[in-house]
């Protein structure tokens, strides 16, 4: 079975540019999560979707960040304009929602560097 | 904060030895999960223990949960060089919005020396 697929794997861009990260969750999973991982702050939940609807976006740092899930098989995380402090590894994860005791399945992340 | 705290932050052992990592958390949980992260990769789920369970095994992994002390431990027996990775605990709890929220700890970096 295909796991969670993220693209691109690496992104290097200059500050001020728009960055779009993409995620394809595991087929049949109803929940999707975006995380950011840095050495200083560890793994932070940015936003959580359930059945394509944002449930908890309290972790989104500021208005420069936005996330969408237009259908069950695709989500994007956009940063506009990007800043050097946004440099991190961004992970997408998905899980079944049928029962609460469900593990999350992570993609391999997008390593983002803002110069 | 619901975030779990792992202890120790880093652990270095010889191949064949056992490795024990601990996780403490702050409030009531529905379940606690352990994940592994290899360098440059995403987190991989290892084991989930529900709040009404005290111990769970999976291969060389043994997880215990003590809800009275709000702590869990992960034991890896007969460690191998391939076990070198960071290990995270994650606590799942009911949020005020009625959905399950999961927060991750800061991780234990395990090095197994061949």
Any overview of this molecule?
Chain A is mainly β and 115 residues long. Helix content of chain A is 0%, strand content 54%. Chain A contains no helices and eleven strands. Chain A has strands spanning 5-7, 10-13, 19-24, 31-38, 42-50, 53-56, 65-71, 74-79, 88-95, 105-106, 110-114. In chain A, the strands form two sheets. In chain A, strands 2, 4, 5, 6, 9, 10 and 11 form a seven-stranded mixed β-sheet that branches. In chain A, strands 1-3-8-7 form a four-stranded antiparallel β-sheet, with no helix packed on it. In chain A, a hairpin with a 2-residue loop joins strand 5 (42-50) and strand 6. Chain A is globular. Chain B is mostly beta strands and 114 residues long. Chain B is globular and about 45 Å long. The mean pLDDT of chain B is 93. The chains are: A mainly beta (115), B mainly beta (114). The A-B interface holds A 4, 42-43, 45, 48, 50, 55-56, 91, 93, 100-101, 103-109 and B 30-31, 33, 35, 40-45, 48, 50, 88, 90, 92, 95, 97, 99-107.
The arrangement of helices and strands of chain A along the chain is: EEEEEEEEEEE
Oligomeric organization of the protein chains: heterodimer
Q: Gap between N and C termini of chain B, in Å?
A: 38 Å
The helix content of chain B, as a percent range, equals: under 10%
Q: How many strands in all of chain A?
A: 11
Most extensive protein-chain contact, per-chain counts: A-B, 19 and 26 residues
Structure, briefly:
The complex is a heterodimer of chains A (about 120) and B (about 110). With about 120 residues, chain A is mainly β.
């Amino acid at each position: 079975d295909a796991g969670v697929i993220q693209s691109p794997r690496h992104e290097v861009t200059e500050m001020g540019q728009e960055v779009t990260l993409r995620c394809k969750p595991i087929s049949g999973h109803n929940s999707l999560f975006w995380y950011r991982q840095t050495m200083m702050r560890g793994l932070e939940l940015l936003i959580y979707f359930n059945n394509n609807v944002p449930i908890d976006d309290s972790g989104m740092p500021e208005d420069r960040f936005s996330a969408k899930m237009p259908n069950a098989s695709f989500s994007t995380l956009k940063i506009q304009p990007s800043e050097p402090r946004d440099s991190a590894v961004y992970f997408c994860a998905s899980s079944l929602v049928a029962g609460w005791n469900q593990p999350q399945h992570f993609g391999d992340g997008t390593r983002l560097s803002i110069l | 904060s619901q975030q779990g705290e792992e202890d120790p932050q880093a652990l270095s052992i010889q191949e064949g030895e056992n490795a024990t990592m601990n996780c403490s958390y702050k409030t009531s949980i529905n379940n606690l999960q352990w994940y592994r992260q290899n360098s440059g990769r995403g987190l991989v789920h290892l084991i989930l223990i529900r709040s009404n369970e005290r111990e769970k095994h999976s291969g060389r992994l043994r997880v215990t949960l003590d809800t009275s002390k709000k702590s869990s431990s992960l034991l890896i027996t007969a460690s191998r060089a391939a076990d070198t990775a960071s290990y995270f605990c994650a606590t799942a709890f009911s949020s005020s919005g009625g959905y399950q929220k999961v927060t991750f700890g800061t991780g234990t970096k395990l090095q197994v020396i061949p």
